[in-house]
Amino acid sequence: MGLAVGFESRSSFGGNRSDATVQTAGEVLGSGAATPDRSGTLKFDEYYAEATLPLVSNLPLVHAFNVQGAYRQTDFTTSVGTGSSYGSWKAGADWGANQGPAFPRRATARHPRTNSERAVPASGYRIGHTHE
Is 20 inside any structural domain? Predict the structure, then answer.
């Protein structure tokens, strides 16, 4: 059995500087929305636990069959004081018929990027991907 637990703290800075044409309403390739300069910082604190459990090994057609599970709790704040907290998980299994490649099946999640979180709404839609 494999087990990992831990804590991670990190921050990410990102931004863009637009020229005068892009900052002018109605002059952005027909979208009609100006893109002002923007920048910001995301600060992440994450707690995680991961485990791998071997269920079967060294049988005919089953060199190894393992299951995995993981959970990560993420708390993040932005440079303007907003933030969020969410959990993400992973579950999976590996089956190897011989000592060669295994056949994994997994599901995972990701955190938002700095530019996605600070994106300017255009036409009622939010640009990029954010967690709510």
Answer: yes
